[in-house]
């Protein structure tokens, strides 16, 4: 790509009907659910690793309970 042909674009406004925006946001939330599940699974595996190998996965929780 030649640097002489580059054109910068700045988006200043998006016109969208209200209900179209609502539907878009609902779809966005539904699409984020699998991502949250994956992140929760990764966090669970990391905590299980620390608990199993170092015995400190829930150390912070036990310290607050006493």
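Q: What amino acid sequence fits the structure above?
A:
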């Amino acid at each position: 790509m030649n640097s002489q042909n580059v054109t910068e674009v700045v988006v200043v406004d998006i016109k969208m009907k209200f209900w179209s925006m609502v539907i878009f946001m609902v779809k966005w939330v539904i699409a984020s659910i699998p991502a949250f599940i994956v992140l929760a699974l990764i966090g669970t595996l990391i905590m299980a690793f620390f608990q199993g190998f170092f015995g400190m996965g829930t150390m912070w929780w036990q310290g607050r309970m006493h």
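Q: And what stands out in the fold?
A: The chain has a mean pLDDT of 84.
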